[in-house]
Structures are given as structure tokens and as C-alpha cells.
């Protein structure tokens, strides 16, 4: 029998230098709202997004996500679509809820271990999401797609966070909910990766 609440290790390995958290689907339950926003925006451009497609691309950064849905779009259209979806999302952030099983870990170690958010989303949406659920102040750094050349699954975001915090990849823990996010952390040299979707059997 599978429980409905993931059980995660509350304490990182001894000697851990930093905890690095994805935002969407890891700290904040944003994916349901994003699914609604993207279905609406993509529909305006002729792409009927399915749940299966969304699930397979969730976790990628904005540009590759839009390009996957609209492969013939030029860069200006990709930027416009991304902005439309972000604006629509920002109108409804008051509906967001924290993912308590992960947030509890961040609260537990706040002030004891440096922590950062590493997200493939736009900075304005990430900051607003964290603030909407009251956890923005827990983190020492926030790295988004806006601060790096390539988003997830590339390692750039994690590498930037490691640089800001001045820590070693091999002594950090990453918390992720998608395969692309885990690939990003792994490519940055992080070996301790917690899949927050894991459940007890």
C-alpha cells in the first residue's frame, strides 16, 4: 500500500555544507496552476497541451519548454508566450500552497545550514511563489533561469548556487521532483539527490 504523504530524510548526511531546493513541485505546489496557465496560453497559439505532455516536460526551463510545445516559433514568439504564461500565473499565486513535507526540512535547518533555491522558472514567478506561501526568507540565495545561460537540465543553476554559497558539490544535498532537475544537479557534481516524490510502500 502506498501512503499519500512522502517520507523524506529529515537530516542530511553529516558534513553537509548546503541544501539546494527546486521550487516548483518541490517547495511550492505550483504545477496544478502552471498546468492551467500553460494549457490556456498554448491554446492561443494552436497547441493543445495534454496532461501527459505537460508531465513529461515539467521541470525544464522556460525556453526549452515553450520550444517543445511550439517548435516552429521564432525567438520573439517564444519570449511572448513565456511572458503571457508568467503574467497569467502571477495573477493567481494567492492560490498556492507549500509542499509541507519538503518545507519542514527547510524550516528545520534554516540558520543552521546554508540553503538556496535553484529553479528553472523566471525569477519574478519563483520569488512570488515562495513569498506567497511564506518561505521566501528561509533561503540565502535564489538562482533562476534569469541568472544563467542555460536552464535545467543543464547544470548552470546549481553551479551558480554552489558558487554563491561557496560550497562543494560533493558535500551538498539537492531536493528535486523531476528527472530534468535531478539531471541538472547530477551534472553539477551533486551526488546526494532526494526525490521528493518518493513514497513509502
Describe how the helices and strands are arranged.
Blueprint lengths: L17 E4 L9 H14 L6 H7 L4 H8 L5 H16 L9 H10 L5 E4 L4 H10 L8 E3 L12 H10 L6 E5 L2 H9 L4 E4 L6
Parallel strand pairs: 1-2, 1-4, 2-3, 4-5
Helix pairs in contact: 1-4, 3-4
Can you give me a brief rundown of this structure?
The chain has 201 residues and is an alpha/beta fold. It is built from eight helices and five strands, in the order E-H-H-H-H-H-E-H-E-H-E-H-E.
What does this entry look like structurally?
- The chain has 201 residues and is of the alpha/beta class.
- It has eight helices and five strands, in the order βαααααβαβαβαβ.
- A five-stranded parallel β-sheet has the order 3-2-1-4-5, with helices on both faces.
- The mean pLDDT is 93.
List keywords for this structure.
DNA polymerase, domain 1, five-stranded parallel β-sheet, Rossmann fold, 201 residues, 2 domains, 5 strands
Number of strands: 5
Q: Proportion of β residues?
A: 5-15%
Low-confidence stretches: none
Q: What would CATH call the homologous superfamily of the largest domain? A: HAD superfamily/HAD-like
Overall, the morphology is globular
Strand order of the largest sheet: 3-2-1-4-5
Rg of Cα set: 16 Å
> Which structural class should the secondary elements be placed in?
alpha/beta
Order of helices and strands: EHHHHHEHEHEHE
Query: In total, how many domains does the architecture comprise?
Result: 2
Mean pLDDT: 93
- How far is it from the N-terminal to the C-terminal residue, by CA? 5 Å
What CATH architecture of the largest domain would you give? 3-Layer(aba) Sandwich
Largest sheet: 5 strands, parallel
Residues in helix, %: 40-55%
Oligomer: single chain
> CATH topology of the largest domain, which one?
Rossmann fold
Number of helices: 8
Amino acid at each position: 500500500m502506498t501512503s499519500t504523504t512522502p517520507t523524506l530524510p529529515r537530516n542530511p548526511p553529516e558534513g553537509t555544507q548546503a541544501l539546494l531546493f527546486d521550487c516548483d513541485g518541490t517547495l511550492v505546489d505550483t504545477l496544478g496552476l502552471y498546468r492551467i496557465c500553460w494549457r490556456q496560453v498554448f491554446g492561443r497559439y494552436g497547441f493543445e497541451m495534454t496532461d501527459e505532455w505537460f508531465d513529461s516536460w515539467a521541470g525544464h526551463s522556460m525556453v526549452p519548454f515553450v520550444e517543445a510545445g511550439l517548435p516552429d516559433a521564432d525567438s520573439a514568439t517564444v519570449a511572448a508566450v513565456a511572458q503571457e504564461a508568467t503574467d497569467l500565473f502571477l495573477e493567481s499565486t494567492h492560490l498556492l500552497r507549500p509542499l509541507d513535507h519538503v518545507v519542514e526540512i527547510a524550516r528545520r535547518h534554516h540558520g543552521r545550514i546554508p540553503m538556496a533555491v535553484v529553479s528553472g522558472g523566471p525569477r519574478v514567478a519563483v520569488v512570488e511563489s515562495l513569498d506567497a506561501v511564506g518561505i521566501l526568507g528561509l533561503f540565502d540565495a535564489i538562482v533562476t533561469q534569469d541568472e544563467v545561460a542555460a536552464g535545467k537540465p543543464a547544470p548552470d543553476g546549481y553551479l551558480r548556487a554552489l558558487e554563491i554559497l561557496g560550497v562543494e558539490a560533493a558535500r551538498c544535498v539537492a531536493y528535486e521532483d523531476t528527472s530534468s532537475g535531478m539531471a541538472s544537479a547530477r551534472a553539477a557534481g551533486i551526488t546526494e539527490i532526494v526525490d521528493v516524490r518518493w513514497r513509502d510502500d
